[in-house]
Write a structure and sequence with these properties.
By secondary structure, this protein is an alpha+beta fold. It has ten helices and eleven strands.
């Protein structure tokens, strides 16, 4: 291999964080033609992880490395959210964690590649496609090894949990988690609630915050939040909460 080619592959290997996936489309836009990519495969510089995706030879990749590629290279609206995000940030350690899957939230119209959805090297994943919150608010960075990915901040993650309740997220667990969210910033909460499209999630969020008595709750301007009209029955035969016009399980009333 010529010195020029060696420099090019060395530059590429330095650009790929350890444990991260690199996409063929990203390589193409950065001057690495598909023919060159195939030469790197044959020369054992890169290994395929599925159609359109590679890793550095010898690297062990996981879900985080895959998300890094989708977020940073493909600019797809997908992130770790809900209880998975709360757990990563230490806000669900006191709740029995029996989940065997990582919960991801993606834009409603997003298409995810087969190599990502069916990769056996990753933890089991559950992708929730929803646009009940804009994808440019309520995210924070989570550092893994030598790179960072986007995950939901605690306030957004709580709203995501409540959007899945009561069928796919237990409201008693939601109350336990809310009790630990004393550090939420009221301006961040306000922005999320004003932009959230789920009436159910917003009413439940405010009810739980009110119930546990967090100091930041008093700074929330509920008059600026669209809470809809009419009653919402979260569960059948629940306890009626007039202030928030919701019917909830007795165990969290």
């Amino acid at each position: 291999m010529s010195t020029k080619k060696e420099t090019k592959i060395n530059t590429l290997l330095q650009q790929i964080p350890q444990g991260a996936v690199v996409l063929a489309s990203w390589l193409k836009t950065h001057g690495y033609s598909y023919d060159l990519q195939q030469r790197y495969l044959k020369s054992n510089w890169l290994e395929s992880v599925g159609r359109g995706a590679f890793k550095r030879t010898g690297d062990k990749i996981d879900l985080y490395g895959a998300l890094y590629a989708l977020q940073s290279q493909a600019e797809k609206e997908i992130h770790i959210g809900g209880r998975s995000s709360l757990s990563l940030q230490g806000f669900a350690h006191y709740v029995e964690m029996q989940q065997s899957e990582m919960v991801l939230f993606a834009g409603g119209g997003i298409n995810l590649p087969v190599w990502f959805l069916n990769n056996k090297d990753f933890s089991p994943i559950r992708v929730i496609k929803s646009s009940f919150l804009p994808f440019d608010i309520g995210l924070t960075t989570y550092t893994v090894k030598t790179f960072s990915i986007k995950i939901s901040n605690p306030a957004r993650a709580m709203l995501e949990c409540l959007e899945l309740s009561p069928n796919h997220f237990d409201l008693e667990e939601a109350l336990l988690i809310m009790e630990g969210l004393s550090i939420l910033k009221p301006d961040q909460v306000q922005t999320l609630l004003e932009n959230c499209k789920s009436i159910k999630a917003k009413r439940l969020f405010l009810y739980l915050a009110d119930k546990v008595g967090h100091s930041w709750y008093k700074y929330i301007e509920s008059g600026k939040i669209n809470l809809g009209s009419g009653k919402r029955s979260i569960v059948k035969h629940g306890v009626w909460i007039p202030k928030y016009q919701i019917s909830i399980p007795e165990i969290i009333a």
